[in-house]
Amino acid sequence: MTRTQKMADHIPIISSLSELNSDFDAFIIDLWGVIHDGVTLYPKVIDCLQKIHKTGKPYAMLTNAPRRADAVRAGMNQMGVPEYLCPIIMSSGEATRLGLEEMREQWFLGVKKTYLHIGPARDDGLLDNLEFEMVNTVGEAGLIVNTGPWGDEETVSDYEHILKEGANTKVKMVCANPDLEVIRGGRRIICAGALAKRYEQLGGDVLYYGKPHQPIYDSCLHKMGSPNLNRVLAIGDSLRTDISGAKNLKIKSLLVIGGIHGEEFGLATGDISTDAGRHIANVCAKKGVCPDVAIHHLCW
Fold first, then answer.
1. Given its phi and psi angles, is residue 185 left (phi above 0), alpha (psi -120 to 50 degrees) or beta?
2. For residue 222, what is the enclosing H or E element?
3. Upstream peptide bond of 212 is cis (omega within 30 degrees of 0)
4. Which of 6, 27, 53, 106 has the fewest beta carbons closer than 10 A?
5. What gap in Å lies between CA 161 and CA 78, rounded to an integer?
6. Model confidence, pTM
7. Does domain 13-64+215-295 have CATH number 3.40.50.1000?
8. For residues 52 and 34, is the Cβ–Cβ distance under 8 A?
């Protein structure tokens, strides 16, 4: 296949996903920044999902959302995506829930079953009916379960005191969303990953569930019927999570230019020129990870 061969100084830009359809048998699709902006769907995504669905090829929606898969599906439905177009959803929240239920990782050894939840009330369902007791202070907590800021207007510095206390007392943190930030309705807000990154800087121990870490991909691929990795395309807008995750798994990746890095790229919509491809390659090279191909917005 030639369209997704990465050049040293140029990332090919395609106009539509259909240009790559014959090259792949399965698709892993990010949600936030690809399908929606946290509030509304992007134009043409319903048509694109319908076209993918009609091919009969398996596809899964893989998202760093700190909520259960059913809650993500309900949110998609409220935005206007019918259930049949969301056949498989794997979220970092679902992976976190399974991780806390099973506690298979050696990382959990010696951790007492009390937790402090850092995150908004809408994420509380992630922790329902666990064999853990919720507490209100770091001093009582065996774990900090981090699903993001309590309020969208907050910054990492607002959490400095609690993060320092946790790190100093060696309380471990579970991060249910490795993303650093998202754009919700045109406004940038921090995610759980930003708090977890600061926690590690302070000496805290963090266990991440979600992209770009491999376990969530393993679960996703299993649900898709374990397709040949050489024929799987990962579609996402984040170099740090979507594209890095694809590289780690050694699968091809399609970067959605108009997502989280849209301002950095600064390209006019529809510009698929060689110069635009070089510009993308330069920006990506500075971040240490490059996609195989790019597209402005997801469309068929």
1. left
2. helix 214-223
3. yes
4. 106
5. 37
6. 0.86
7. yes
8. no
